[in-house]
Design a protein that fits this description.
heterodimer; A: alpha+beta; 35 helices; B: alpha/beta; Rossmann fold; 4 domains; seven-stranded parallel β-sheet; 40% helix; ATP-dep_DNA_Helicase (chain B); EC 5.6.2.4 (chain B); Helicase_C-like (chain B)
Chain lengths: 873, 553
């Protein structure tokens, strides 16, 4: 057991060593959990360990810890380094182990025994082994007065909770180890230094545990005289050595019995002071002439100066007052998500299908309404507030909901800015394909765009740090946490029994537990709320419960086949009524819907569509090239009821007047009283390019501009005179506007993507190989004299050319790997581990474990070669 | 998934009438949804906050509404709509008006924040008195109507449990000798009486007067009846004498000419709203007796000052009668809060199917303007355009042809413009009733028409309402008040009294083609078309040609 603190060959001395001892699966797990470590692939395990210790990476890793793992890490941060698991457990549960005196790690066996006793004794029942601890409880309660009372009242954890902590601790430690935040075995747990710095208290930033610095840290800059005074006041034997004085003081503070005795003498007000500081923040401001109770505490070192005007409660004292606990509340178990309602799954699916249909229709309506060129793009990007309002009114929804649909259509690549000089939003070419697809597939496209999207419509209308309003489709809407939260929310819903709708509060609590760090939790809660609302809007959930299609979406399978049978069959008929309306009692087949949409105005939408025929709408249909008889036939063919007479009349009435007046475009005209001259011109072949057309016996219209027409006529031998023109009418039918090919926005994920298994395996192999190259324990070169000696690690091996050739050839024969020093054409030296395959023509070809590929090396550039110890590949 | 109902996202409900469950669905949704259109195949209902609160007032809860929607719906009902229904209905009844033994009229809440919210409204502050406790505030008794109206506008309709005063008792009974109230009339009376106050919507000719009489017989108290004009007042009186135990002496007429105040008093809106020196001298009529019941005939025409005064009459029972609760001024919500919620409604076609109103054939006759008329029309001033096309000479020819076609049938020619009517009267050799015709003369002519002594009568808009001419079978409308939907319905109502031989009534609307007249006609017809009256369109040329053939043959 004592080898825990001595340097044994088995115990790792650094994170890199700890990593080296892991198997490939563990490394893969690490890289999977922290994919940022792979960018770029580290050369060897030392590099990997260094990178895993950088601040940015550790912050990210801590960010991803759940509450209990984080609490465990926090406890480790205030524990001695290294720390054994028993001490850690004590810090979490607060029950003092029997031999609590002195640094726990110095007596590994003792600690172990204590742990054993504790397990049998438990927190509540004072058994034999836990006698001193159990007996101390009441004594402390009496002696400490209000402060102790409060600390104890603050929830001496129930035995059930303690048991839960014990059960959960190995799991949390495994998580921390997997993530390489903690290394070392259970007796020598070490928190990565950066993590310790982040989580441990410092004068500027109290720790999340609310604990202050240790006595040793707090007294670091203190004058020896002052320390002497404190030691004396605390009733300890005087010593002139500051170090031993501090140790004595620490010893006093960590001895429960003596501490209780000391605190029993404190004036009652002092207990109030301590009670205020015990759960943090541990700092208190004082006047230069503090009150008597504070002075009493300060004199005995129970409060130590942190700066000129602040005092700090040393960690040991706080821990004593807290009953040894690092945390006020400990949450070893994830809070369960509670179902608020449970609906029948069929009902959920039906509701989700209804909503899915509405979602598809809404997006179609939205993007379709921008068919002729949508609202302009703001100079800073995005949609103006007014356009958003207008869209909301048009869709008959609230603005945030309108923003959601717009962003959804954008994420699905259905609309984009057209990139013209006066930039506008318009449907993309992809929209035309989308609109033709069956509804279920259209929905699937929307839903699969929604799930991983990082753009969040929820923040639209809010202001960013610079006070600019965030606009829909505008910049800065990406929230990298969104996809993860979205997925997690759906997963939690999926864990409920089928048809269960989560109680929002419990869901948010669970999410907060899983990712407790303060900086992000508020955004995450909002994201979760938005997810619930959006999922309902989209039909991923129905009445708050995850629908079948939602599960499919989550599992990554195509939800369309699940959805399709739930959607109403398209109908191919309408009911015509005498009040000039037509009702389509279900979704219409596309061509029918398109024709009707031209012929009549849509009055009401939903499961059915109500159309109203008006003179204007009929005229629109006639303008679109339909003849009155076509319309009659169309209605007769698609109506299952007789066409009402007023409707036929309406069509005939409008048709009668339609086209009575004709309007066209001409650029110039030719007028001549003598119509035979005009006939001549028309008959003349040379006039073909002028685009002449006879409008009346004495008038020709031309498509060319007047100057060209004049020239043309003169060329034909006429002598035309120009007329002062009265401005010509130019009517162009607006074409449907489309953007150029556009790709939908790429989600901006949080950090690099999680690599797949193949990549991970390759990466681990590469790191491993690099590591072998850097640290390989090499056999003595076969024929190398003692003079050459083994090269120190990191040095290039040196062998003669003949030796090199022989070793390499031997390796090629046996198929074993060798370690070579190599200088490339640029003169850069490197070490590589290669498995030679063949040696010929002055080159050795082999599998390079470092580069993970087959390479060829010139023999004359190999500076030396060494065989590898057997166990290294 | 095969119900008769389709719930639309804009809160309209489409009911397929030929579906086997259509009747059950109609009954289920009737309490909370307003019938908006009832054409032949698909009826449209609309779910409005007013309708939902009506349902709450009638004792239905949100669960029932949601169940009705979900049960009969063909497609999944949008979740948002269900939530909205529940939320809207939950707003009703958070506030109640009631009588407190000590403090008099009080407004109580079951949801304190709501009370706090409304008390912060500037519009509520002048209407309430002292705060009695956290959940109760005193209300000035005179502001009972005002506060209800305002609360409705704020979206927190109050449930009025303060009850009604009985008023001065007066014995009134129905004299059901040889006749009795029709089932729907009885339902209407019961619905009204049960609810305390409210509006009964029945088609023209369906016997609204009898609903009023029935309500009076229930109340057995002094009654004030408000009607649109003097002729209508006389008819009410006549009808009441005939149908109830009341005698002529018990019924007073309060109009421009007579100012009688009797146990049952019939007053015209016109006299009530006469303004002298900035005040309404006749509004004190409301206070002149301790009325137990106030009947508002043609409640859709209720003028604004009467609204204002009605607000002060909330302690009295109020019955509104109308054929169409369509107000062109959109004050339906005032009718809801001041008169009361709709207590009974029956689609026209349903009453027709029961045989209580005559089936009607509605025909729109399209008249072509002559070339010179078209030119004149094109150059007419905008404000003159309607008058010009509505009174075109061609219409006269067509009208004459129509009258000839229905020779021997009791025919009404209805128009807007006096010149046109005078001219028509001269050509048709028929008497003309217009604004300046004395009441005595009107009564005389109407009597002669009822007796069949005159078969053609030319009337102006004075005859739009409440003129009981049971024998009229043909109505020819030559011009109207622009696009008024309710006028069209009222005019159709003139010919809907069931005929002795059960034959169908005819309603012609003569319209000048390709003019603004046609646009207005389309708008006017909308209400009836939505009630299921399908207009046939006929060309005047066809009609005149047919005429020619007939005279030839």
């Amino acid at each position: 057991m004592p080898e825990a603190s001595t340097t044994g060959s088995a115990a790792p001395r650094s994170l890199a060593e700890a990593l080296r001892a892991r198997d490939d699966a563990a490394l893969v797990a690490l890289l999977r959990a922290r994919p940022d470590l792979l960018n770029p692939v580290p050369g060897d395990l030392t590099q990997l360990a260094t990178r895993a210790g950088t601040r940015a990476s550790v912050v990210r890793a801590l960010d991803h810890l759940d509450r209990f793992a984080l609490q465990t890490a926090e406890a480790l941060a205030v524990a001695p380094d290294p720390c054994d698991v028993t001490t850690l457990e004590t810090l979490l549960t607060g029950t003092r182990p029997a031999p609590a005196v002195g640094p726990a790690d110095s007596t590994g066996a003792g600690a172990k025994a204590g742990a054993g006793a504790e397990r049998t004794g438990g927190a509540a029942a004072p058994g034999d082994g836990a006698g001193p601890a159990g007996g101390e409880g009441p004594a402390r309660g009496e002696g400490e007065g209000p402060a102790g009372g409060e600390a104890a009242g603050e929830g001496a954890f129930g035995s059930e909770l303690v048991a839960e902590v014990r059960r959960a601790l190995p799991g949390a430690l495994a998580t921390l180890r997997d993530q390489a935040v903690v290394w070392g075995d259970d007796r020598t747990l070490r928190l990565v230094r950066t993590a310790r710095e982040l989580l441990a208290p410092s004068p500027s930033r109290p720790s999340p545990t609310g604990l202050g610095p240790t006595v040793a840290e707090a007294t670091a800059g203190m004058s020896p005289t002052r320390i002497q005074e404190i030691v004396a006041a605390a009733g300890l034997p005087a010593t002139h050595d500051p170090v031993s004085a501090v140790a004595a003081l620490t010893g006093l503070f960590t001895d429960p019995d003596r501490m209780s005795a000391l605190l029993a003498q404190a004036p009652p007000e002092a207990h109030h002071v301590l009670a205020r500081l015990v759960w943090g923040p541990p700092y208190g401001e004082v006047t230069p002439e503090p009150t008597a109770p504070v002075r009493w505490l300060r004199d005995r070192g129970l409060l130590l100066p942190a700066s000129a005007r602040t005092l700090v409660l040393p960690r040991e004292v706080a821990l004593h007052l807290r009953g040894g606990r690092a945390h006020r509340r400990i949450e070893p178990l994830a809070p369960p998500v509670v179902a608020a309602h449970t609906h029948r799954p069929e009902q959920v699916d039906a509701n989700s299908a209804g909503q899915a249909l509405a979602a598809v229709a809404t997006v179609e309506e939205l993007v379709g309404s921008w068919d002729q060129g949508g609202p302009p793009v703001l100079r800073a990007g995005g949609l103006s507030v007014r356009d958003l309002k207008r869209t909301a009114v048009a869709l008959d929804v609230a603005e945030p909901v309108a923003a959601f649909w717009i962003e959804l259509a954008y994420a699905a690549g259905l609309l984009a800015s057209d990139g013209e000089a006066d930039e506008r939003y318009a449907p993309t070419p992809a929209y035309d394909d989308w609109v033709e697809a069956p509804p279920a597939q259209r929905w699937a496209r929307l839903a699969t765009a929604w799930l991983p999207a990082t753009r969040t419509s929820g923040v639209v209308g809010e202001q960013d740090a610079k006070g600019r309003t965030l606009s829909a489709l505008g910049p800065d809407l990406d929230r990298s946490a969104a996809p993860e939260v979205r997925r997690r929310v759906l997963e939690l819903l999926a864990e409920l029994p089928p048809g269960g709708a989560a109680e929002t509060g419990s869901l948010l609590e669970r999410l907060a537990w899983e990712r407790p760090l303060r900086g992000t939790s508020e955004l995450r809660a909002r994201l979760a709320r938005w997810t619930l609302a959006e999922a309902e809007l989209l039909g991923v959930t129905g009445r708050g419960a995850l629908a079948g299609v939602g599960r499919a979406l989550l599992a990554g399978t195509d939800p369309a086949p699940l959805l399709a049978p739930l959607l109403p069959e398209p109908v191919d008929h309408v009911l015509l009524q005498a009040d000039l309306t037509a009702v389509a009692p279900g979704p219409l087949r596309r061509p029918l819907a398109e024709t009707l949409a031209v012929l009549a105005d849509v009055e009401s939408k939903g499961g059915a569509t109500v159309y109203r025929f008006t003179p204007a709408s009929v005229r629109r249909a006639l303008d679109a090239g339909q003849a009155a008889s076509d319309l009659h036939d169309f209605l007769a063919a698609h109506s299952i009821t007789p066409v009402p007479q007023p409707l036929s009349y309406l069509i005939d009435d409008v048709a009668r007047r339609h086209g009575h007046l004709r309007v066209g475009a001409a650029s110039s005209y030719v007028r001549c009283d003598d119509d035979s001259v005009l006939g001549e011109i028309l008959a003349d072949k040379r006039s073909a390019g002028l685009g002449l057309r006879r409008l009346a016996p004495t008038v020709l219209a031309a498509t060319v501009e007047p100057p060209a027409l004049l020239d043309g006529l003169r060329a034909m031998g006429y002598a035309p005179a120009a007329e002062s023109h009265t401005g010509d009418v130019l009517i162009t039918r607006a074409g449907a506007r489309r953007t150029p090919q556009r790709t939908p926005p790429v989600p901006v994920p949080e950090g690099p993507p999680v690599p797949d298994t193949t990549l991970l395996a390759a990466a681990v192999r590469a790191i491993r190989a690099g590591d072998v190259a850097a640290t390989a324990v090499r056999r003595e070169p076969a024929a190398a004299g003692a003079a050459a000696g083994a090269p120190a690690p990191g040095e290039l091996p040196r062998t003669s050319a003949a030796e090199t050739l022989a070793t390499v050839q031997a390796a090629a024969l046996t198929g074993s790997a060798v370690w070579i020093g190599y200088v490339n054409a640029e003169g850069a030296a490197s070490q590589r581990v290669i498995a030679p395959v063949r040696v010929e023509g002055g080159f050795v070809t082999g599998y390079d474990h470092t580069a993970d590929e087959v390479r060829t090396y010139a023999l004359h550039r190999i500076t030396g070669v060494a065989e590898l110890a057997e166990d290294h590949l | 998934m095969n119900g008769p109902l389709i719930v639309q996202s804009d809160k309209t409900l489409l009911l397929e009438v030929d579906h086997e469950l259509a009747d059950a669905a109609r009954r289920a949704i009737a309490p909370f949804a307003e019938l908006e259109r009832a054409p032949e195949h698909i009826h449209t209902y609309r779910v409005t906050p007013l309708g939902l609160w009506n349902a709450r007032a009638a004792g239905h809860d949100a669960e029932q509404v949601v169940d009705a929607l979900v049960e009969y719906s063909r497609y999944p009902v949008p979740h948002a709509l269900l939530v909205d229904v529940a939320e809207t209905m939950a707003r009703y009844g958070r506030l109640t008006l009631s009588k407190h033994p000590v403090h008099g009229l009080v407004l109580t809440t079951t949801d304190r924040p709501v009370l706090e919210e409304i008390l912060r409204s500037k519009r509520i502050t002048p209407l309430v008195g002292a705060r009695i406790d956290a959940d109760t505030v005193a209300v000035h008794p005179s502001e009972r109507g005002q506060i209800k109206q305002t609360l409705l506008k704020l979206g927190w309709p109050a449930e009025d449990l303060a009850g009604y005063v009985d008023g001065e008792a007066h014995p009134i009974d129905l004299a059901e000798d040889g006749w009795s109230l029709r089932p729907y009339q009885r339902q209407a009376v019961e619905g009204f009486w049960h609810g305390g106050s409210g509006v009964v919507v029945l088609p023209c000719g369906a016997g609204k007067t009898l609903v009023g009489a029935g309500a009076m017989a229930q109340a057995k108290a002094t009654t004030l009846i408000l009607v649109t004009n003097t002729v209508s007042a006389r008819q009410w009186k006549h009808e009441l004498v005939r149908r109830t135990s009341l005698t002529e002496d018990e019924i007073g007429e309060y109009s421009g000419t007579r100012k009688e105040i009797r146990p049952v008093t019939i007053a015209t809106y016109q006299v009530l709203t006469t303004k002298r020196k900035g005040i309404y001298p006749h509004l004190e009529l409301f206070d002149s007796r301790d009325w137990g019941l106030i009947v508002y005939d043609e409640v859709h025409l209720l003028p604004a000052p009467v609204f204002k005064f009605t607000a002060d009459l909330q302690a009295r029972r109020r019955l509104g009668l109308t054929a169409t609760l369509v107000r062109e001024d959109g004050r339906e919500s005032d009718v809801f809060s001041l008169i009361g919620p709709k207590r009974f409604d029956a689609p026209w076609k349903e009453i027709e199917a029961q045989g209580y109103i005559a089936p009607a054939d509605c025909v729109e006759v399209r008249v072509n303007l002559t070339e010179s008329e078209r030119l004149a029309y094109a150059t007419a001033e905008t404000e003159e355009k309607y008058r010009f096309c509505a009174t075109t000479a061609t219409k006269r020819k067509v009208t004459e042809a129509l009258v000839r076609r229905h020779k021997g049938e009791q025919t009404l020619v209805i128009g807007q413009y006096i010149d046109q009517l005078d001219e028509l009267g001269a050509h048709l050799d028929a008497p003309v009733i217009k604004g300046e015709t004395s009441n005595a003369q009107r009564e005389k002519l109407f009597d002669a028409f009822r007796q069949g002594e005159i078969s053609v009568l030319v009337v102006s808009k004075v005859a739009n309402f409440s003129i009981d001419l049971p024998e009229a079978t043909v109505a020819i409308q030559v011009s109207g008040t622009f696009g008024s939907r309710q006028e069209e319905a009222q005019r159709l109502g003139r010919v809907l009294r069931p005929k002795a031989d059960g034959h169908e009534a005819r309603f012609y609307s003569v319209v000048a083609r390709d003019t603004i007249d046609q646009d207005f006609a389309a708008h006017r017809q909308r209400f009836l078309a939505e009630q299921g009256y399908a207009y046939r369109i006929m060309d005047a040329d066809e009609l005149l040609a047919g005429e020619g053939d007939r005279s030839d043959g």
